[in-house]
Amino acid sequence: MHQNEHIYEEAKLIALLNDGSEYAFQLIYDRYRNRIYRLAVKYLSSPLLAQEIVQDVFLKLWFERANIRTGRPIESWLVTVAKNMIINQLKKLARDWKAAGALKGINTITENPIFDGLKEKEYQALLNKAIDGLSDMQKAVYRLAREEQLSYLRIAEQLNISPLTVKTHMSRALDHIKSFFAERGILFLAAFLFS
């Protein structure tokens, strides 16, 4: 495809997207999702986190579709949004690892594989108890996302809700779980969130 044809086709797609065309959105998603995914994996080194970045970037595109300008390449908009989200995710991970490092420094128990296995089982039992305290919808979203590793878009389809509602339920579920652990003086480690 020649450069002028590409620019013209993209301008048409953006115009359709501005009007709320799901077909145009799907074409843009199919065309650029792998580029955004590769960018996120490169910096985050986590396929699961990278997939969440892809979902968040395209959710933002959908909700801001009416404001996207036809004269600007959509790829540059998507990459800029992705980079900002990646930076925010890296900052969050740095805070989580810093907190985990501080907790590890406080913990003076000797390294013992049997003890570590018990700690992991106890931690998992607490996590299950925290999950039991979620609303039915939050529990469903959490399990589909973390245990079945479905994307927010697939969860939305399966539960017949919007992807933004999925994201809201997931965010509230994680906040509840973190609070549950914090009330017991335990750090809810990011490693368990993304394993």
TrEMBL record:
Superkingdom of origin: Bacteria
Pfam families, alphabetized: Sigma70_r2 (PF04542), Sigma70_r4_2 (PF08281)
UniProt entry keywords in alphabetical sequence: Sigma factor, Transcription, Transcription regulation
Any one GO molecular function term: sigma factor activity
Domain RNA polymerase sigma-70 region, first and last residues per copy: 28-95
GO biological process, one term: DNA-templated transcription initiation
InterPro entries registered for this protein in UniProt: RNA_pol_sigma-70-like (IPR039425), RNA_pol_sigma-70_dom (IPR014284), RNA_pol_sigma70_bacteroid (IPR014327), RNA_pol_sigma70_r2 (IPR007627), RNA_pol_sigma70_r4_t2 (IPR013249), RNA_pol_sigma_r2 (IPR013325), RNA_pol_sigma_r3/r4-like (IPR013324), WH-like_DNA-bd_sf (IPR036388)
Domain RNA polymerase sigma factor 70 region 4 type, residue spans: 127-176
Family listed: Belongs to the sigma-70 factor family. ECF subfamily.
Listed name of the protein: RNA polymerase sigma-70 factor
Organism: Candidatus Pseudobacter hemicellulosilyticus
